[in-house]
Every structure is written in structure tokens, then in C-alpha cells.
Amino acid sequence: MKREPTREVASLSGVTFAYNGHQVLEGVDLDLEERDFAAIIGPNGGGKTTLMKILLGLLRPQRGQVLLFGEPPQRTAHRVGYVPQDIHANKHFPISALDVVLMGLLRPGRLFRRYSRDDHRAAEEALDQMEMWPERHKRMEELSGGQRQRVFIARALVSNPQALFLDEPTASVDAMGQTDLYSHLKRLNERITILVVTHDLMVLSSYVKSVICVNRSLIHHHAPEVTPDMLRLGYRCPVELLGHGHLPHRVLPCHGGPCCE
Amino acid sequence: MSEWLQLPFVQNALLGGLLAGILCGIMGTYVVANRIAYLAGGIAHAAYGGVGLALFFGLSPLLGVLGFTLAGALIMGWLYLRERHRADTAIGVLWAFGMAVGVLFTDLTPGYNVDLMSYLFGSILAISRGSLAAMAALIVAIGLFVICFYRDLAAVSYDDEFARARGIPVTALQLLLIVSVALSVVVLIRVVGLILVIALLTIAPYMAEKRCRSLASMMVMSSLLNCLFAVVGLGLSIRFNVTSGPAIICVASLAYFAFMGWLALRRRA
């Protein structure tokens, strides 16, 4: 099998972003390569969501360069499937799972347009991939947290994206749903690049290929592990973190390389 | 009852109630689905400031209310869109300020005593042909807007973050929605009063939201419920010779309480 050369999905160089005068990211560099499955971790308020929004062109940094598929993100963001934090979506909104997925086909500047047969076929395929087709007519409110997230991922997949950006997809999902969600993502990663903001360090070793630790500055570690440097950068107190996840056998000792100096 | 229906003013009132019900059914769907009932309340109350200003400066009440309401709506809308979770205080201030300005300028206007109650609860039995025409025209205009942008408005209302990432002009659509609410308030305040506007914008859509699977069905159901409330309320107000606005509000509120009770019982069962 011919291995295609790795290409860059997204890159940041010297990106600085402040929100209402409060510095969130400072001189940050990042290269996200094709087929990566990268997890963005870091403390609350450390800039994880901001980083993702900058990559999508939803926020403009005060300094630095952002490229998405080699171009300014405003031009190429539609090639990314985006799964925002689910707190944005109104839970009681009257909408069916199918209509949520069709939303992923919206493009600016098309009035009166009804969804075509092709659109419906694409929605069926996306829902099917996430094993949610049988639930398509249910109101979003009637679905479990995990099922809702699968619908949101289907909505992101329906436009046939080259990358999938997910912001805390497992925040309101029970443990079983989380495992299920990540195995779906792992399968998708055979085709597309995945970038996921997560609090859940459990996923690191089993699913993820690289780890991006963000706390004003950024470390991209090209292996599924948390290094002591990341702990120092990311969390003031590593012990607190050890208490949460199943970390002890995932924290590997410093082994040299650019981020372990 | 049937001899009442022969009277032109009763016919006008009925027509007015139905048109108000439909207009509020459409706009209320967006108000409730976007969780901006408080913002709509602020706009409706700020509108009263326009009444006072128009009286004092001798402008036409419609122009005064239109200008003041649109300005208030855009300020409140901008504050809301900028900081959703912190805008409620500012909206509360403008809400109170609008009412106070309205009352003060009415006081200062020599020889004129406008009836505050008529702006709070309207005078649907004195509705003019012109008001009916204005309501019908606004329903057509807002209907066209909603049909043109239905999918975009649904996406913006459901998940603005995602809509923005799809390149939808989110802020522009949100402001247009808020302006539509403001225009509805302007047209309806003389007819049904600002309290009734808030009731029609929120009660039926809230009930409909619990059962519907799309914004379109929610609009239809809210409009039907609103029309039912208006007709029953008007009938009762004529039969018992009481003010019609509060009668309609009581009918709607009682239906709401009954509906919530029924939901609670069903959940327990």
C-alpha cells in the first residue's frame, strides 16, 4: 500500500490571543498533521476552547498566523466538521435528530433552499455511521447524552469534512457512552484527522495519537502520553490530577525530545 | 352571543385578536426557542418611553414608539448578544427606564392625560381599521422573512456557535429577529397592550414547544392556541362586561397552569 505524504491540516505560528485584556494564549505554535488524533488538554480557562475557535477562524488572534489547510481559516473552515460544546444548544428546542444533522449542510447565502434528496442521503449516511438512523425522528430532548453527541458528530460528518474538531464531546455523557463515542471516533480517524478538547485523561492512551497541552503556552507531544512537563504547565498540582484519572501508568518519565528538555 | 357578532367593533376586535395571535405565535416561537422572553419584556416596556416622548414633543405616537422601541431593542439586543449571561441587569434597567420616561413625559405634557392602562392592557374593542391593516402587513413581511431564512434562523436559534462555523451571518439574523420582535411590539401595543403582547409571545409558544418537533409546527400550534385564547377571552369579556386584555391573559394563563399540571401528572404516572 502506498503511503501518502503527511500534509498539514492546521498550523499556528506565534499566535497570541487576549480576551478583554486577559491574555489567554501567548506566542503559541502548533502543527496538526493529517490523520492525527490529537487531544487538547489543560486546566479550565487555559485556552483549550479558544485554541480550537482560533483554528476554525471563529476568533481572530491579535498576533500570529493561522492556517487551516494552508489557507486563512475563514476560507476553509467549512472543510472541518465542528462539534461545539453542547451547552450552546438549547436542550428543549423543538427539533428532530434528522433536522439537526441536516443543519450541517447549511451554507451561507442560499434562500428558500429546501434540502435535496442528496442532502437526505448524506444525512442518512452520517446518522448510520453513528448508529443513530433508527432514532432520527426523535426529539433531541428524548435522546441520552451520548446519543445526542452522536447526532452532533453526525451533523459535523454530513458535509464530508476532512477533519473533525470536537469541544468536550463527553462532558454530559455517562462512562459507557464515552467509551462508545471514542470507539466511533477511532473508526473515523482511519479516514479523517481528529482534534478533541477533553478533560478525560482516560482516553489518552487508548485512542489518541498525540497530546496538546495548553495553558497560555502550548506543548504538542507526538505520543499518547502526559509528560511531567505537561503536568507542570497544565496543572499547578499534579497530585490533584493523579487523584482523578487512571493516570499512574500513563505518566511516562521524561525521555528527551523537544518537549521533555 | 350571535347578536354581538353583528356589531362592527366586535368583528374588528375578533379580527384584531386573531391577527395578534398569529403574529405573536410566529414571533413568540423565536422568542421562546431563543430563550429571550426577558429581552422581549424589556423591549415591550421600553416602548412606553416612546409614547411619552411622542406626546411631549408632539410627534405622531406611532413614530415616537417606533423610534424609541427600535433604539431600545437594538441596544438591549446588542448587550444581550455580547454577553448573554450578564445582560439581564442592563435589560432590567432599560425596562424600568423606558416606563419611567414614558410616565414622566406624559406628566410634563400640558393638558394631556394619556391612559397608562390602555398601553398596558390595550383597547382591543376600540381597534381601528388602520391598526388591523398594519398588523396584517407586518404578518406578511415577517412571514416572508421567516420563509426565506427558515433553516438559517432554526440553526441560529438552536446552536449559534455551530451556525457561525458554517458561515451563517449569525449576528445579523439575531438582530433581525430582535428587530422583528420590536416591530411586533410597536404594532401591537396600541391594540392589545404591552402586557398582553408579552403573554401572547410566551404562553402559547412555551406550551407548544413541549410537544413540537420543528419550529414550523411550533408556530402553527402557538398561533392556534393564541387565537383560541383571544376568542375565548374576548367572548368572556363581552359576556361579563370586563376589560378584554386581562380576560385574554387570564384565559391563556389558566390554560398554561392546566397544561403544566397535566404534564406533571403524566410524568408521575
Compact summary:
With 261 residues, chain A is α/β, with parallel strands linked by helices.
3D structure, described in words:
The complex is a heterodimer of chains A (261) and B (269). Chain A is an alpha/beta fold. Chain A has helices spanning 48-55, 73-76, 97-103, 117-129, 145-157, 175-188, 203-207, 228-234, 238-244; strands spanning 8-19, 22-33, 37-41, 63-68, 80-83, 163-167, 193-197, 210-215, 217-221. Chain A contains 9 helices and 9 strands. In chain A, strand 8 and strand 9 (217-221) form a beta hairpin. Chain B has helices at residues 2-5, 8-33, 37-56, 61-82, 87-108, 116-121, 129-148, 150-158, 160-165, 170-192, 194-209, 215-239, 244-268. Chain B has one domain (2-262): Orthogonal Bundle (ABC transporter involved in vitamin B12 uptake, BtuC). The chains are: A alpha/beta (261), B mainly alpha (269). Chains A and B meet through helix 3 of A and helix 8, helix 9 and helix 12 of B.
Annotation keywords:
A: 261 residues; alpha/beta; Rossmann fold; 9 helices; 9 strands; 23% strand; disordered C terminus; B: 269 residues; mainly alpha; ABC transporter involved in vitamin B12 uptake, BtuC; 13 helices; 0% strand; ATP binding (chain A); ATP-binding (chain A); ABC_transporter-like_CS (chain A)
CATH topology-level fold name of chain B: ABC transporter involved in vitamin B12 uptake, BtuC
- The DSSP helix count of chain B reads 13
Radius of gyration of chain B: 19 Å
Shape of chain A: globular
**The CATH C-level class name of the domain at 8-94 and 162-244 in chain A:** Alpha Beta
Strand fraction of chain A = 15-25%
Report the end-to-end length of chain B measured between terminal Cα atoms.
Answer: 41 Å
Give the chain pair forming the largest contact, with residue counts.
Answer: A-B, 31 and 32 residues
Helix fraction bin of chain B: over 70%
Stretches with pLDDT under 50, minimum 5 residues of chain A? 236-261
Please give the largest β-sheet of chain B: none
For the termini of chain A, the CA-CA separation is 37 Å
In the sheet with the most strands of chain A, the strands line up as 5-6-7-3-8-9
Radius of gyration of chain A: 19 Å
Q: Provide the CATH superfamily of chain B.
A: ABC transporter involved in vitamin B12 uptake, BtuC
The CATH topology annotation of the domain at 8-94 and 162-244 in chain A reads as Rossmann fold
Largest sheet of chain A: 6 strands, mixed
GO biological process, one term (chain B): transmembrane transport
Subcellular location (chain B): Cell membrane; Membrane
InterPro entries (chain B): ABC_BtuC-like, ABC_TroCD
Keywords (chain B): Membrane, Transmembrane, Transmembrane helix, Transport
